[in-house]
Amino acid sequence: MSKPSDLVQGTLDLLILKLLAIEPLHGWAISRRLKVVSQDVLQVSEGSLYPALHKLEQEGWITAEWKQTENNRRAKFYSLTRPGRKQLEAESASWHLLSSAITRVVRLSEA
Amino acid sequence: MRPEHWWYTLPLRLRSVFRRERADRELDEEMQFHLEKLIEEGVASGLSPRDARYAALRAMGGLAQKKEEARDMRGTRWLTDFLDDIRYAARSLARAPGLSFFVVLTLALGIGMASAPMSMVDALVFRPYPVPHPDRIVNLRSTSPYSSFELFSYAEYRDIAARAKSYTGVIANGDYIPMGYSLKSGETARVRGGMLVSGNYFSVLDVTPQFGRAFRPEEDQVPGRDPVVVLGRDFWKQELASDRTIVGRTIRLNGTVFTVIGVAPESFPGMHVFIRPDFYVPFAMAPVLSRQPQKDFFHDRDARGLIVQARLAPRATLTDARNELATIAKDFEREHPQFNRNRGGMVRNQVQMRTRSDDPNWKFGIVFLVLALMVLAVACTNAASLLLSRAGARRREIAVRLALGAGRSRLIRMLLAESLLLAVMGGAAGVAAGFALIKLLTRFAIPTTLPIHVPFQMDLRILAGCAALSVASAIVFGLAPALQSTRVDVVDGLKAGEAELPGRRRLWGRNVLVAGQVAASLTMLTAGLLVMRGFHHGLVEGVDFAKTAKDHVLMATFDPRLLQYDSTRTERFFKQLVEHACQAPGVVSAGLTQNPPLGLEAFEVLPLVPEGAEMPKDRETYDVTMDTVDEGYFEAMGIPIVRGRAFRSSDTRDTPRVAVVNESFATHHWPGVDALGKRFHLGKRGGPLVEIVGITPTLRYRMPYEKPMEFVYLPLAQRPVARLTLLMRSSGNPLSLIEPLKGIVRSIDPDLPLVSVRSYMVLYRYNAVDGPGIAVKMSMTMGAMALFLAVAGLYGLISYNVSRRTREIGIRMAVGADRPDVIRLVLGKGLVLVTAGAAIGLALGFGVERVMNTALFNIGGVDFLVYAIVVPATFLVTTLAAYVPALRASRIEPTRALRWE
Question: Which of the residues B34, B40, B68, B71 would you substitute to probe the A interface, choosing the one with the greatest number of A C-beta atoms within 10 Å?
Answer without folding.
Answer: B34
